[in-house]
Amino acid sequence: MNVMIDGYKQMARMASILLKNGGNPSRKYATSIADYKITWVEPKKVPYWSSERSGDQGIKIDVKSSNFGNSYNELSELKDANDTVKKMFTLQFLPRKETTIIRREKIMALVKRHKLDDKSSEAKIAKMTSDIYQLQKDVLKQPTNKVIRIKLLETIDKRKKILKLLREKDYRRFEWVLEKLNLVYKPTPELPLKINRETSLERLTEKHCNELVQEKLDAYKTELKQLQKDFYIEKMKKLMFIREEELACGLQPSVSEEDIAYAKQKANEYQT
């Protein structure tokens, strides 16, 4: 009878737990964001053409529409011309290509090594930075133009590759270029390492070989230290012999007494 009563009590206890936990016989766990009491806000999507993603913080380059074109800047005929003629040769009435060329040359002048430099890493990065600036403006005007979008992405990737190589080759110059061009270097994230048997065995084998090499080097280093005592004793004797022979022949000795004393001191150190 008591066994039946205990069974009914246990069944009643399980029924109450099921009612409290919504049909879950175990402890109640958080199953939705509301259970965690956390306010989640979806992060803002950053477009690929934005300066925030490419790392361009902007360069203060003054290119006025009242400036002459690059090919007309030094013409002597324009000095005596009237204002109307001069205005026709300004950037305001010339193709956009002229403005782009002038902006590119001014940006490249910030990092060029010399006047004719256009092949160094710094000059290439500056040229691509100018192109990226213009392409970003074009994408904002024509967001559906696939040719401009692809060209922009390719230019950003090429500049990132050159920046990576410059960082590995000359880090101080890399930092200097970033400061001059007001850039933020954002490297491409590395792919996660795939764990497999072959790669793991290669790494373990390489580690074991390195340990063997280090053990042999340590043993050889100890052996050389033991031989240094005999070496300095023999060196001291030969230096003394050379000095005595040179003095006996009436020659200027090439071995000084300081050299002999130094060899003797080293021999005494290794004896102890």
SSE topology sketch:
Layout: H1 2-20, H2 33-36, H3 51-54, H4 83-88, H5 96-108, H6 121-141, H7 146-169, H8 171-181, H9 197-248, H10 257-271
In brief:
With 272 residues, the chain is mostly helical. It is 62% helix and 0% strand. It holds the Pfam family Ribosomal_S15.
Q: Rg from C-alpha positions?
A: 39 Å
Overall geometry: flat
Q: Provide the structure class.
A: mainly alpha
Helical content (DSSP H or I, runs of 4+): 55-70%
How far apart the termini lie comes to 93 Å
Number of DSSP-assigned strands: 0
What fraction of residues sit in β-strands? under 5%
Average pLDDT works out at 83
Helix and strand string, N-terminal first? Answer: HHHHHHHHHH
Give the low-confidence spans: none
- Major β-sheet, in short? none
Helices, by number, come to 10
Subcellular location: Mitochondrion
Keywords: Mitochondrion, Ribonucleoprotein, Ribosomal protein, Transit peptide
Organism: Cardiocondyla obscurior
GO molecular function: RNA binding; structural constituent of ribosome
